[in-house]
Amino acid sequence: MPVVPAVHREVRLAVRPRPARPLSAEHFELVQVPVPRPGPGQVLVRNRVMAVTAVMRTLMNSEADLFMPPYGVDEVLWGLAVGEVVAAPDGGPDGGPKVGELVEHRFGWREYAVVDAAEAHRLDPAALPDPAAHLSQGPSAWMGIVRGAEVRSGDTVFVTGAAGGVGSLAGQIARLKGAKRVIGSTGSPRKAEYLTRELGYDAVVIRGAGPIEEQLREAAPDGLDAVFDNVGGEQLRAALALARRGARFAIVGALSGQATGGATAPVEVDTVALTARGITLRGIALYDHMDVIPEWTAEFGRGLRAGTLTFPHVRLSGIARAPRALCELLEGRHVGAVLVDL
Q: pTM of the prediction?
């Protein structure tokens, strides 16, 4: 039986950030509290690694209109984490996870978590080479490319937010699905070079390097067949201007608003152009497609072992670094997923 300490650390929301203002350390509080004790039907998990994502900034707004409830002031934040079960009073209730097993759950931002057994999803240690890869945003990328944009052999595909945790996998998946040309967008020349050199993008448009539509026309002179949009705003508008007849758009995010806490990225749409060119706009969210997770995990495991897929990510060490990790993600400092080892 693992030794469980008397106290552990957790991160709380100290004060709500003001709209359109940068996130900083002052918005968080790191506290030391007693390790919680599991009750009937629960397990105690020692968290090993957690993910931070852009939507967490939006959840800090009390008026956030999402499918998830906003964070509460003076309450512990939450998000996906992978950990080891260290106590199970029922010995693994109702066939649930047992001591020593790895599980994924939604109670990150703390070193120990009490989790209802039904919400602690047992992980197969052999499924992926690194358990942390279960925290990739690959299910969203797979869902958007395969079910949303329906990428086909020979397509020219545009992936917005291509250097993020979702986009860095979406471009790779598009290539696996037979895309002839894959174009990404990002915020710096450094990231653009990484996308073309390491992730196989054919071209990259750079936010701030000139009008997006002009850059995209140069990168895709024959137009776009499929678009994976994780940003909205100007980038979606540019993609619509270059959409070929029958183009398929998967709308999966709104990063242009989320970076400063917003939840919207409005775009004016010409409905005449949509109908005349037979363009499909499909808003698609993972909570409606949870069945893709095992499908993606199997594909990801094969790809990682064969070298046909990579998992771009950065890992910071220690729960005290978690607030800084989220701030750095929103500042665009990293490529791929941002994880924190606990």
A: 0.91
Cα 134 to Cα 132: distance, rounded to the nearest angstrom: 5
Looking at this protein, which amino acid is placed at residue 124?
D
Phi-psi category of residue 300: left, alpha or beta, with phi > 0 → left and psi -120 to 50 → alpha: alpha
Q: Which amino acid is at 24?
A: S
DSSP letter at 70 equals P
Whole-angstrom CA distances from 96 to 36, 50, 139, 177, 337 are: 19, 21, 24, 36, 29
Other CB atoms closer than 10 Å to residue 281's CB: what's the count?
Answer: 18
- Residue 303: phi and psi, rounded to 5, are -65, -40
DSSP string, 276-315: HHT-EEEE--GGG-TTHHHHHHHHHHHHHHHTS----EEE
Angle at 181 between CA 185 and CA 210, to 5 degrees: 30
Count of C-beta atoms within a 10 Å radius of residue 335: 23
Tell how strand 156-159 and strand 112-116 pair up.
unpaired
Neighbours of 31 (CB within 10 A): 14
Show pLDDT as tens, one digit a residue, over the chain (342 residues): 688 999 999 999 999 998 778 899 999 999 999 999 999 999 999 999 999 998 899 899 866 666 678 899 999 999 999 999 999 987 665 678 999 999 999 999 999 999 999 999 999 989 999 999 999 999 999 999 999 999 999 999 999 999 999 999 999 999 999 999 999 999 999 999 999 999 999 999 999 899 999 999 999 999 999 999 998 889 999 999 999 999 999 999 877 555 555 556 678 888 988 999 999 999 998 888 999 999 999 999 999 999 999 999 999 999 999 999 999 999 989 999 999 999
